[in-house]
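Record type: ASSEMBLY
Status: queued
Input:
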Amino acid sequence: MKAFRSNVRSFYHILKYYNNAIKANKFNKIIARTKIVSKNYKPKHIEIRVAKYKRFAYFYGKSKPSMLSNTIKELSTTILNNQSNFETTKNAIDEIHKHYLETTKIEDFGESMQHMAAVPTASGMALSLNHAAACLLDYRRTAKFLRGMVSLIREQQQQQPNEIINIFYAGCGPYAPFITLVAPLFKASEVQFSLLEINAASIQMAQNLIKSLELTDYVQEYHTADAVTFQIPDAKKYHILFSETLDALLYRESYVPILWNMLPQLDENCAIIPNNVIVQASMTYPKSETEEIRKEKEAAVILNVREAVKVNDGSKSLPEEFTPVTINLSGDEKYYSMVVDTKVQIQGDLWLSRNESSLSIPLEMEIAYPLDAPNVTFFYQLKPSVELKLKN
Ligand SMILES: C[S@@+](CC[C@H](N)C(=O)[O-])C[C@H]1O[C@@H](n2cnc3c(N)ncnc32)[C@H](O)[C@@H]1O
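Status: finished
Output:
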């Protein structure tokens, strides 16, 4: 029993540590190290990596609006045409960032609490203005979501050749990249957006940026509201819902409650970006310390978001938690560690792979032997806080 408790507490401790690390240091690279003390009191170290964001520290000369929208269109095209060339993609996103910084004057917001503090939603927390802006610099995330969005619009255009493609953008942040980088690639007679954001300062900034980029013709509505409870006007007209409101392990942000609320309102054929998120546990082996190459096998799907929200036809209130999943660690094989991945399906076969983005950082937990009671039970909690938890 003692070993079981210490195992469970170790997992719990690391999960909490990981969550706090992400919460506290979203802007900085941190390599946090945490300890598990195994039965023979040998400390084992685990590294937790959190994506690195650069601080806002650029200054740029002013460019005229029409020049600016052409520049953004070119940079967006560069990202789309160079998906496998990281340096080119990174440079293009950095360049976009410089223009957005200069246009929005976001630096003037400094690090005041108001623009650094997360905003509570009906379920989960929304990122502050500054943190939401920094998401642009999660390079592979931005490049892949851009590719997913543009190819989905083109696909929808082929399926409905004479229709305007209507997009609902829930959680646009101050840079609203998935309209400001996407709209210039289409005509306003082809795509129309409605934007929603809970953070009033962020949506105001997005509105100003859209005006500066001369993209106002592409926007039908702006809503300052909580996507977890919002009733979408004329919801059935939308072809695409875009909502990148998630973090690794689906920690704290509202992607799940937003889908719970919005999917039943939308047409059943409405496409979603990201289409799904799967939280999955795998076991690594062999146990031997000297082994350099470890194999991995899938242990369990802890949460498949689209499966979990499917039960809501619009009449059900958000549950406090989803069904727990138990993983049994006993058996002949001794494992080295358990890895929990956040697998983000943007669209079709376009996924964020492990460590490619801050959204897909895995959590690795070393296994301490012997195991007296080898069951580990995970569950995804929605109330009072939104996070993956372990049952004791
Ligand atoms: C991770 S940021 C992404 C910003 C931008 N869309 C991007 O992809 O770079 C998520 C944004 O969604 C907003 N958000 C999160 N939860 C929300 C909710 N429940 N209702 C409305 N907006 C929300 C946050 O305030 C934040 O601006």
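Annotation: Confidence is low (pLDDT under 50) at residues 1-10, 23-62.
Annotation: Residues 2-24 form the longest helix (23 residues).
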